[in-house]
Amino acid sequence: MADPSSYRPKPGQIPDSPGVYRFRDEHRRVIYVGKAKSLRQRLANYFQDLTNLHPRTRTMVTTAASVEWTVVSTEVEALQLEYSWIKEFDPRFNVKYRDDKSYPYLAVTMNEEFPRVQVMRGHKRKGVRYFGPYAHAWAIRDTVDLLLRVFPVRTCSAGVFKNATRTGRPCLLGYIGKCSAPCVGRVDPEEHRELAEEFCDFMAGRTGTYLRRLEKRMTEAAEEMEYERAARLRDDIEALRKAMEKNAVVLADATDADLIAVAEDELEAAVQIFHVRGGRVRGQRGWVTDKVEEITTGALVEHALQQLYGEEKGDSVPKEVLVPALPDPVEPVQEWLADRRGSGVSLRIPQRGDKKALMETVQRNAQQALVLHKTKRASDLTTRSRALEEIAEALDLDSAPLRIECYDISHLQGDDVVASMVVFEDGLQRKSEYRRFQIKGFEGQDDVRSMHEVITRRFRRYLAEKEKTGEWVEDGHEDGLAGETTAGLRGDGTQAGFEADLETDGLRTDGLKNEDGRPKKFAYPPQLVVVDGGQPQVAAAKRALDELGIDDVAVCGLAKRLEEVWLPDEDDPVVLPRTSEGLYLLQRVRDEAHRFAITYQRTKRAKRFRSSPLDDVPGLGDTRKQALLKHFGSLKKLRSATIDQICEVPGIGRKTAETIAVALAQAAPAAPAVNTATGEIMEEEPGTMGSGGEPVTTGAPDERRGQET
């Protein structure tokens, strides 16, 4: 690890002008390339106090042993030089997109005497018409196979063509009618070139005129009773329509555009590109990259543009490029794209209409690509094993943490405070072990106190199940455990206090194991507890374990902003490398806990908003609630109905009707009286109704306690 001050240039040595800079390590290898509008200001950011740097940047500057720069005239030149150096040096700390293969194009060699249709990769050649790119070469061959019966253009190699010319015998495609066989003189060069131009016109999207011409010829052949020719033309039309279905119109104005979408998290990013030509999606490609450096979405888009168009010229760069976020600044990038194309290029974010809808499709593809990449990465046994070993080494654990539990707190401005517990065993999710908690010990927002409560409750259950005299069992699972009681634990005065705690948290002691002899789920202790947060949350979790006398469970926290791993009683975090499989696993665990907590919190909030006075009527299920509201039309009319009128609803007896009337009366702010003689609900006082005709109520509905899943 080098000290950045040892190679820091003097401020006066760095020019205040646009340029490109390179960091080199002690072996003179380029490890990072960047560009700047002002080299002096940008490089000064790297040589500040290391504690103020992002961990990824800190690793880069301490790995480097020198820095050098090249001054350029404009930001566009800086962009071009940065791209060239990244391609040349392949720096380890720059964004590098995996799966950076050369994508195949459908090419027509119009520069030859007899143009040939083929699959091409790599650099574009002058005089060759290109269509695509396509995701797979077989997609090109499928399209070409459909079109050859209508446009029998040459597809053979130069060697096959020369051999057929020498022997006077065409290849198999010539015999079956999928090649016009110019090699043996069935068509002259002009006729074959005309076929190739019609093929190119069709691929470019000019399909309507040609189809109408074929349909007219088919009709004429049928009228002249040339049924075999009419049938061939019919089959040709069907083949062309099948080829068109493979490239459905997505933009009605025959737009040429590339749409770029980015799906990302703290560690990785997936880029998806749809190539639209003539209003049709002609190709799709995608990349995945590790985010080794701190980078914005706009910067990811800029790197994607460099990689996409760095080797392209002319029409290969479309008139319009649609992106999810613009690079900052955007002007140099637009100028660079215009230089690559030879004319203006529109680089923008779609706001409405078909282009915005198509961008949403591209975004979904990017998100799915990222999820698929993560799934493949997580399912690999070797990768998971390496991740667990890296975590054990980084946290100084005695062995790999085969069971990891992660906890997260979620709320909406202090309301509906809940927590989640997710479980990963051997690096894989164990969703059957997930649990959800309501925060019951206090009101309001306090993430640290909430974390202490949740850890205490979870490990109190673990201790209860270790007791040889009994254990708790689960009674309810609607949204978690509800209404459990305590049968009592044998013990002294201290144990009695422990029993009281168990009763508060919904435990009872009815038997030690399940029927199959396996311990209950909370009987399995984790080797590692991960909390979503930094030092305060970690300290709260450790304090809860200490109070329960548990000293064989490790604790750490993962702070989301900088992906730092915090340990109890440590002033400095553990910074795992950005490419570390251990960090990747911890992030997956933390993100899953966050997702699970958010889902539960939203569910609770939605239930609170949908609450009704009918919810408090014992034995009144959803079916009869709906029947009541359907019969009366609204809660207001139901409230004003008599008990006899309520009894008219199918399934509602008089006793239930009386209970409903009382519940509705008590729910109103100014509770109306019920005439016990007539069974009628007294008229409500003015001013007690809300603007929508419903009673104005305050406060949250009564909540069940002890709901954990």
From TrEMBL:
Self-association and partners: Interacts with UvrB in an incision complex.
Residue stretches making up the UVR domain: 208-243
Keywords, sorted A to Z: Coiled coil, Cytoplasm, DNA damage, DNA excision, DNA repair, Excision nuclease, Hydrolase, SOS response
Residue ranges of domain GIY-YIG in the record: 16-95
Function recorded in the entry: The UvrABC repair system catalyzes the recognition and processing of DNA lesions. UvrC both incises the 5' and 3' sides of the lesion. The N-terminal half is responsible for the 3' incision and the C-terminal half is responsible for the 5' incision.
Chief location category: cytoplasm
Keyword Transmembrane helix listed: no
Family: Belongs to the UvrC family.
Keyword Thylakoid in record: no
Cell compartments where the protein resides: Cytoplasm
GO molecular function: hydrolase activity
Coiled-coil segments: 211-247
SMART domains: GIYc, HhH1
Domain UvrC family homology region profile: 259-545
Protein name in the entry: UvrABC system protein C
Region (Disordered): 683-709
Record organism: Streptomyces gilvifuscus
